[in-house]
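user:
I keep going back and forth on a fold encoding question. Separate attempts, laid side by side, tell us more than any discussion would. Would you put together a sequence-and-structure record for a protein of your own picking? Write it directly below this note and I will take it from there.

assistant:
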Amino acid sequence: MKVIQKTEHLLELKNGLDLIVFLSVFFFGFALPSLSFLLFIPSTIVGTGVERFSCKKVERTIATCELSKSSIMGLAKGTSTFFEGVKGTRVEKITDTDMEEVFLVTNKGDLPLPSLIGEDVNLFNKYIQTAVGEFVVEKDNRLLNFQTMLVLLAFQPFNVVIIYLILYFAIIETYIFDKNVNTLIIKRRGILVNEVAERSLDEISEVELETTRDSDGDELYEVRLLMNGGDRLSLGNISNQKEQLKIADWIRSYLDGRSHADRDTSDPGDRPA
């Protein structure tokens, strides 16, 4: 686990293998025996993600919209495009084809928007004319591309090992302690996972460090948040006791409203778990 950001009002921790490390393991463990498959990896992993088109009404028949795209199987945030003064859509047939191109009609002119197709266009026009609130359309092509990868892996050596590495290492957990909104935000992102949960900081009664053992009998050190309801939130475990003690201390000092300098400055490795 590493600290991404640490201020008086915000503490952000990330748990999981760094993307660069993951890609390095993936490349060197698979490149030599499966060079042909690696040629398919960049376009499948890097270019695959979730495309989200969302709008909010600013007037009765006018909306502000955003088109956001993620990449690297949804793990990385991509581009965002904003559209102001949206009043509807216009569909134009592409010459000499059966395909159609969709344009957003805005105060500044018509802008192409390939994310809206078919029934989505009709739903969007109804939203502009009659509905209130928010309009959202998402296109998630990660599962389809992941299934394609699995089919190709079936014909590659060491396919079981690679599938395990993808599923196990490509999940990143982020914990954001935010005093401004008194909330702990927990994000889990991976190839097939995109989850967000929230808990109140007031629910956290204690930060504890537990010692566990893996299947080989080696000791692991797990930071847990003890909640008022009796449940425990695990922030992951590693074999480095000193590092986990440091993380636990940072969380305690943050929740106590004190800086890390105000706490015991002795070496965390010298204190009992």
Remarks:
- Confidence is low (pLDDT under 50) at residues 258-269.
- The helical segments are 19-30, 35-38, 41-46, 119-130, 142-153, 159-169, 241-256.
- The CA atoms of residues 184 and 228 lie 14 Å apart.
